[in-house]
Amino acid sequence: MKRFICLALLCSLFLPDLRAAETNSATPAYKQTKGPSEVQTVRYDWLDQKRDRKVPVKIYCPTSGAGPFPVIIFSHGLGGSREGYEYLGRHWASHGYVCVHLQHIGSDSAVWSQGRLDQMMRNMEKAAANLENITNRPLDVSFAIDQMEKINREDPALKGRLDLNRVGVAGHSFGAFTTLAVVGEVFIASGGREVTFTDPRVKAAIPMSAPVNRNWPGLLSGFNHIEVPCFHMTGTLDSSPIGQTEPKDRRVPYDLSKGADKFLVIFEGGDHMVFSGRGPMRGGRKDELFQKYILMGSTAFWDAYLKNDEAAKAWLTGTGFKTALASDGTFEEKLK
Questions:
Q1: Distance of alpha carbon 58 from the chain centroid
Q2: Which of 7, 177, 195, 234 is the most exposed place for a label (fewest CB within 10 A)?
Q3: Are 212 and 255 in contact (CB under 8 A)?
Q4: How far is CA 246 from its chain centroid?
Q5: Would you say residue 202 has pLDDT above 50?
Q6: How far apart are CA 34 and CA 141, in angstroms?
Q7: Top-confidence residue, 209 or 116
Q8: What is the set of domains in the chain, with CATH numbers?
Q9: Prior bond to 68 cis, omega within 30?
């Protein structure tokens, strides 16, 4: 069961080239800035005894508000860690979500921490195609939800403050693969056997830079089983050093998915590293602006589909996000 996964890769090798930018001042911004709550973080090194597998996490929690708070599980790209994508965790938590950033052992930062660049690239390629990594990542997500249910029952600080009936999952690159696997993508194994990692507790998802291998068996039907709302994000330059996904193919999961509301934003000039919160991959100069759109669009999506906020849904499905985005990208929707 071999699949080449595009990734958030070797960010430290690409120098930041950011330029301060603002969204169109005439547009109606949606929760573009920090929310009303301060945010605290806590780290755990969980152990899934069933798999004898460590699952390190970093949790972002709002410090104010009685809750119960919806929970968002975040899956990093290949070569990442629980410390990455902080701008997302802090922003969502400040607006009333508990965000659990996973670290997937075997496809985390350890795979590129040693050796020359050519060796690191080979390590990354092996990690992306490794069946254990492909299998363990979605299982890590389900285990994390199990752990949050335990925390909601037993932890003195968070007992009864989590709403595990409103769980979202998001991820970038290999993390987007993980996200789609958890919400229903079906894979065809050897002999034609169908494999799924679907967790019905997940109610909404945001896959960023989803990988697509057009040679993957069952690709055309695999996405048909995704029945939760999804907000797909990509860019016109969204390729990476490892994998077979071209920028034009990043939209395939959106195009092939049916059922529930689906959204797609394509940032004009956005590359693979836009979503990481770090420097650009190809010298792009609009990362800060794109990340503001990511914060607005994602928060509106979570509010609409995890908090049932009709105003957020109206902003997202009406003219709000399209107007804010203007010529910096395109926005599509398929509403059920």
A1: 15
A2: 195
A3: no
A4: 19
A5: yes
A6: 26
A7: 209
A8: 11-334 (3.40.50.1820)
A9: yes
Q: Whole-angstrom Cα distance, residue 200 to residue 182?
A: 8
User: Taking residues 93-120, what's their average pLDDT?
Assistant: 89
pTM metric for this prediction: 0.89
Identify which of 116, 227, 251 has the alpha carbon closest to the alpha carbon of residue 176.
251
Beta bridge partner(s), residue 40: 61
Distance of alpha carbon 234 from alpha carbon 251, whole angstroms: 8
**Rounded-to-integer distance, Cα 252 and Cα 231, Å:** 13
- Does the pLDDT of residue 188 top 70, yes or no? yes
CA Rg value for the chain? 18
Mean pLDDT of 150-157: 94
Question: Is the backbone of residue 192 left (phi > 0), alpha (psi -120 to 50) or beta?
Answer: left
Kindly tell me if the per-residue pLDDT of 27 is higher than 60: no
- The pair of three-digit structure tokens given for residue 93, joined into one six-digit string: 């938590």
**C-beta atoms surrounding 224 within 10 Å:** 15
From CA 181, how far away is CA 191, in angstroms rounded?
Answer: 20
Enter the tokens of residue 321: 């996000």
Please tell me the chain's helix, strand, coil percentages from 3-state DSSP, rounded to the nearest 5.
35, 25, 40
- Percentage of the chain with pLDDT > 90? 69
Selection from 235, 241, 174 nearest residue 14 by Cα: 241
As beta bridge partners, residue 170 has: 74, 206
**Cβ contacts of 120-127, under 8 Å, gap ≥ 24:** 120/10, 121/241, 121/242, 124/7, 124/9, 124/10, 124/78, 124/79, 124/242, 125/4, 125/242, 127/78, 127/79
Please give the mean pLDDT across all residues of the chain.
Answer: 87
Tally of CA atoms within 13 A in the half-sphere of 22 that contains its CB = 5
Write the pLDDT tens digit of every residue in 240-296: 877 778 999 999 999 999 889 999 999 999 999 899 986 555 555 688 899 999 999
